UniProtKB/TrEMBL annotation:
Major subcellular site: mitochondrion
Task of the protein: Component of the MICOS complex, a large protein complex of the mitochondrial inner membrane that plays crucial roles in the maintenance of crista junctions, inner membrane architecture, and formation of contact sites to the outer membrane.
Compartment(s): Mitochondrion inner membrane
GO biological process: cristae formation
Subunit-level organization: Component of the mitochondrial contact site and cristae organizing system (MICOS) complex.
Keyword set, alphabetical order: Membrane, Mitochondrion, Mitochondrion inner membrane
Protein name per UniProt: MICOS complex subunit
UniProt keyword Mitochondrion, yes or no: yes
Residues that span the membrane, as ranges: none
GO cellular component terms, semicolon-separated: MICOS complex; mitochondrial crista junction
Length: 212
């Protein structure tokens, strides 16, 4: 190639060191020449290999692929489970809540806040119970159908998970209803007895006056 002239075009100068011309057909025909266990001569190029590094890289690649597949499967399972839970909650909410959410929810929250304000100087039990009771009462007043649906649903859950509590509640409710019915019956009988007594007394007085 000779010395480079200062005025020579750069296109004629190769910036890559070493041989730039194509290898000979005879050399190219020799596809692979095994020099030793870690060195090969391929198409005129010296290729050195490192079996330990290749083995480590292969094992690491397989381990990474395996862990990636496991992580992907777990993510898909969690995503599917989350979608199912969200769908279940959405469907159950639509089933329980039949009235419009607004403005009933605002009224319920306002009632609960009112209960909290009215009892802000009371003890902690009263401060906790008052907003809860105000909220439940306003929930029943402003959303009666939803309140009934939620009550029935909670009753079913109670029978499914804590049947003893449900039985105690049923017995208490029955006893309370029986007591109320007995009280009403006693009141009715007392009232009837009083009315009959007044009537008989008046009749006796009229009979006594008529005899005079």
């Amino acid at each position: 190639m000779g010395k480079r002239s200062f005025y020579t075009d750069d296109d004629e100068i190769s910036s890559t060191p070493g041989l730039t011309s194509a290898i000979s057909p005879e050399l190219e025909s020799k596809q692979v020449i095994q020099i030793d266990d870690n060195t090969k001569f391929v198409k005129g190029k010296l290729i050195k290999t490192f079996p330990q590094l290749e083995q480590f890289s292969n094992q690491w690649r397989k381990w990474l692929i395996s862990k990636t597949e496991v992580a992907t499967a777990e993510y898909d399972n969690l995503k599917s489970a989350m979608n199912n839970e969200v769908s279940t909650v959405t469907n159950k909410t639509s089933e329980l809540v039949t009235e419009p959410i607004l403005p009933s929810t605002i009224y319920i929250l306002t009632a609960a806040l009112t209960g909290s304000i009215l009892t802000n100087r009371r003890n902690i039990a009263v401060r906790f119970l008052a907003p809860t009771l105000f909220g439940i009462a306003s929930f029943k007043y402003f959303m009666p159908h939803s309140f009934s649906n939620v009550g029935n649903w909670l009753y079913q859950l109670e029978g499914e998970y804590v049947p003893e509590v449900q039985k105690f509640q049923d017995d208490t409710t029955k006893s309370t209803n029986d007591l109320i019915a007995a009280s009403k019956q006693f009141q009715k009988e007392t009232n009837d007895s009083l009315v009959n007594g007044v009537k008989e007394t008046r009749q006796n007085i009229m009979d006594w006056v008529s005899k005079k």
